[in-house]
Amino acid sequence: MNQLTQSSERGSSRFVFLNRGLAFLARPSIAVWAPIPLRLIVGYGFIEHGFAKLSRGPEAFAAILHTIGVPAPHLLAWLTILTELIGGLAVLLGAFVPLVSLPMAAVLFVAMLTVHLPYGFSSIKLLSVTSGRAQFGPPGYELDLLYLACLAALVFGGSGPMAIDQYFGKK
Q: By C-alpha distance, which of 158, 67, 50 is closest to 107?
């Protein structure tokens, strides 16, 4: 019994040590940098998706939109591509994030409801492994929710340091 008490006390002291050791990350001087990784991954992700649609040709994306029953597929293909490219760049730079987040969130909601929802939550569906390579099924709506959560965090928490919005506010 004594050994169990000593063992749990040691484990507890390790946790306290670890907690104190990482406490510097929670200081306001460090926490202010938290939006930077969000801006980088969300901005880059949107730019990458927009560029992929543009490089395959907007007509190919319009054909997909037409197939799933989206009205005005050519117009919405271009609007989606521009939203992803311009919105992604704005988020990456920290410029007009609350403004560009609205159309970006709309693109995510439409993608989630029209494409990803039937495949469930998980964005990774391992179907098989052949010749040492993984074969995946269609992604669910998990990634859409993660992007929406990141956009919400940036809108409500601010874009953080090194954001262009800071320079517009300091006139």
A: 50
Q: Any idea how long the chain is?
A: 171
Q: Are 65 and 77 in contact (CB under 8 A)?
A: yes
Place of tokens 């970006």: 104
Q: Does residue 129 sit in helix, strand or coil?
A: strand
Q: Please report the pLDDT score of residue 14 as a whole number.
A: 47
Main-chain dihedrals φ then ψ at residue 134, nearest 5 degrees: -80, 140
3-state secondary structure 57-110: CHHHHHHHHHHCCCCCHHHHHHHHHHHHHHHHHHHHHCCCHHHHHHHHHHHHHH
For residue 145, give the amino acid letter.
Answer: L
Question: Phi, psi at residue 31, to the nearest 5°?
Answer: -60, -25
The CA–CA distances, whole Å, from 82 to 60, 75, 76 equal 15, 11, 10
For residue 92 the two structure tokens come to 């990456």
Dist CA 170 CA 118 (whole Å): 47
Highest-scoring range by mean pLDDT, 2-16, 52-66, 120-134: 52-66
Neighbours of 166 (CB within 10 A): 14
